[in-house]
Amino acid sequence: MSSRPDPVARSSGLTGALVALFERFMPEPFVLSIGLTLLVAVAAVCFAPHGDSDTLLAGWQSGMFRILPFAFQMLLILVTGYAVADSRPVQRLLARLSAHVETPLQAVCLVFPAVAIAAWLNWGLGLVIAAFLSREVGRRAPVDFGWLVAGAYSAWSVCNNGLSSSIALSQASAGNPLNFAEKFLGVTIALRHTLFAPFVWVPTVAVVVVMALIFVWIHPATGAVHLAGRENDAAPTPEAHGAAPRDGSPAAWLGGSPLGVVVVVVFGAGWITMQCVHHRFALDIDTTILLFLLAGLVLQGSPSAYADAVRRAAAQTGAMLLQYPFYGGIMGIMSATGLAAAIAGAFVAIASAASLPVWTYVASLVITFLVPSAGGHWAVQGPFAMQAAAVLHADAARTAMGVAMAENVSNMLQPFWAVPIVAMAGIEVQKVMGYTVITFCVSLVLYAAGLLLL
Fold first, then answer.
1. Quick one: pLDDT at residue 370?
2. Tell me, what DSSP letter sits at residue 158?
3. On the chain, which terminus has fewer CB atoms closer than 10 Å, C or N?
4. Which H or E run contains 330?
């Protein structure tokens, strides 16, 4: 690992002040989750209709453990995605893509479209691409590494407007437990009215383009460049990926043989084929994990090589493990005490048919910071939003996507999803969030304009 001093100089002006502020005062994400738990508990006692201690504590405990299946799914997405990106072919591809990046402009031109497209296709894929592409560019180019990872995270922020959007997909799926449009309005909302509607895709593209231009402008001056990315010199490189060691024993032979890979791929490909034949294939969380697993096994070449990659992934992603139960506890408190309903209801009470999507958007900005999982957030806010749309005869698609777009915005201040990216990239989250607060401000305006004007 190369040694280098921590940067003293930073970009001047507002950006430099924000970066310094977050580095000095933002606590570790796990500490932040504990602080938010206390904040939500106090708010529930003061404002929720059922804020008594029994309800609060029961909701907290049940929420902590009810989120564990989801937490395990998230970790599997990151671990299996890491194993894909950690493979020799992908490492070589990333190295080739970043080999000629020598300026901040070139870094932005590579990272922003690559990450945004990957995130639009699937949020888990976007997370992994953001981390590994940042690491490769940061290892080679004289760019500030915190700035670079923040740019990748900003490009990833559009994921809730993409093909893996849990809110849009659930409203398009008849019988889905989270399809509150069907429950309260008796309709399903086709994706052409949500993801592919101009009020969604126009601001989505605008966020990527505008933020790319802004990130070129706010890159620290040459003398202030933090040549980070070098902390990742100890990370595996394509040359470090070799065949599993063989000592001649049958066990070692089986581990290094592609036979195990073939077995799993046959099973996985068989299941996918069966789903396609019966028109049941859907790119949900479980299917994403399976696809990453199959791709990683094929790219790693053997079970032993894949297990080694997963061990490396666990070391990178383990820091975020404890956050999930605490955010589950927060979700449990908000749901059990009625705090989320109170927040959403306060905005709905002053809404009209025309303004409901915007007020839902504003309410979502608040709720997202406390419940950063889109699916869990929609389970909390969705019933009130869709019920209000039914009563006020408001645009249901616009109301639902107002929640999703606010998720994109608030994620730029809420470090829940930044943690896996910075863990895999190898940098402290505080060095990133000072930049993404700018993304928060810009995307806040652009998405609101889309809801109001398009």
1. 81
2. G
3. N
4. helix 323-337
